[in-house]
Design goal:
alpha/beta; seven-stranded parallel beta sheet
Length: about 250
C-alpha cells in the first residue's frame, strides 16, 4: 500500500471532509488544513494544520508537515474554496481578495509548494474546479473566474510537469453541502428554487459529497494513470441538458 501522504485542503466539512474520509478508509495517511482550530469530528488519524492557503508561507508549511509525517506527498487535493454571490459591479476589492486568494492563489500556492517533491518521486494533483468555471453562474462573477483559473492551471501543470506529475480537476455541479443549502435559502421561494434546480438534473437527484470523493480517489489511483490535464465534470448531467428540455423529474 502506498504510504505517501495525501494533502486535502479545506477538509473539515462538506466535500473536503468526504474526501478526507475516503482516503482514510483506503488506508492512506492524510493531512488536512483550515483557518480555524482542529474540528472535533475529524478522524483521529488525520493530521490537522491550522493554515491559510492564500499565504505562500502557510502552503509551504502544510507540505513540510506532510513530508515530516510521511516522507513524501503522493497526492494533493486542492479543495479549499469560498464563494461570493455578486456581479462585477457589486463586487468589492475585499471580495476579490477573499475569493481569488483562497480559490486561485491558494491552489497555485499548494501546487508550487508540492511540485519539487513530486517531480523527484512522482505524484498526482487533483484540483477542485466547478461547472461554474465552464458555464458561468449568474451573479457569481469572481467565483466563476476563480474556477476558470483553476481549470487553466490544471492543464498547464499537466503539460509542463508530466510525466512525473499527473494533474486533473474535478468539476462538481450541485452538491448538497451546507453551502448549497445556504444558496437555496437565499431564494425568494427556497422550496421552488430547489425543485427547479432538481428538475434540471437528468440523473434525477443532486450530488452528494461522496460522489466527488469517489471521483477524486479514482483519479489519484493507478487505474487513472493515463489521465492528466482533464477537467472531469461530475454534475448528474446538468450541463449536458438543454435548459428548454421538458421537466419530467
Amino acid at each position: 500500500m502506498d504510504q505517501s501522504a495525501v494533502i486535502v485542503t479545506g477538509g473539515s466539512r462538506g466535500i473536503g471532509l468526504a474526501i478526507v474520509e475516503k482516503f482514510v478508509a483506503l488506508g492512506r495517511q492524510v493531512v488536512t488544513c483550515g483557518r480555524g482550530a482542529r474540528p472535533g469530528h475529524l478522524d483521529g488519524s488525520v493530521e490537522w494544520v491550522q493554515a491559510d492557503v492564500s499565504r505562500a508561507a502557510d502552503a509551504r508549511y502544510i507540505v513540510e508537515r506532510a513530508e515530516q509525517r510521511c516522507g513524501r506527498v503522493g497526492v494533493l487535493v486542492n479543495n479549499a474554496g469560498v464563494q461570493v454571490e455578486k456581479t462585477v459591479l457589486e463586487s468589492t476589492d475585499a471580495d476579490w481578495d477573499e475569493v481569488m486568494g483562497i480559490n486561485a492563489r491558494g491552489t497555485f500556492n499548494l501546487c508550487r509548494a508540492v511540485l519539487p517533491g513530486m517531480l523527484e518521486q512522482g505524484g498526482s494533483i487533483i484540483n477542485l474546479g466547478s461547472i461554474s468555471g465552464q458555464t458561468a453562474d449568474p451573479s457569481m462573477a469572481i467565483y466563476n473566474a476563480s474556477k476558470a483559473f483553476v481549470h487553466g492551471l490544471t492543464r498547464s501543470i499537466a503539460v509542463d510537469h508530466g510525466p512525473q506529475v499527473r494533474c486533473n480537476a474535478v468539476c462538481p455541479g450541485w452538491i448538497m453541502t451546507a453551502m448549497a443549502e445556504d444558496a437555496f435559502a437565499m431564494a425568494a421561494d427556497p422550496a421552488s428554487a430547489k425543485a427547479d434546480a432538481l428538475a434540471r438534473h437528468p440523473a434525477g437527484r443532486f450530488g452528494q459529497p461522496e460522489d466527488i470523493a469517489e471521483t477524486v480517489a479514482w483519479l489519484a489511483c493507478d487505474a487513472a494513470r493515463f489521465i492528466t490535464g482533464q477537467c472531469i465534470v461530475v454534475d448528474g448531467g446538468l450541463t449536458s441538458a438543454s435548459p428548454l428540455q421538458p421537466r419530467f423529474f
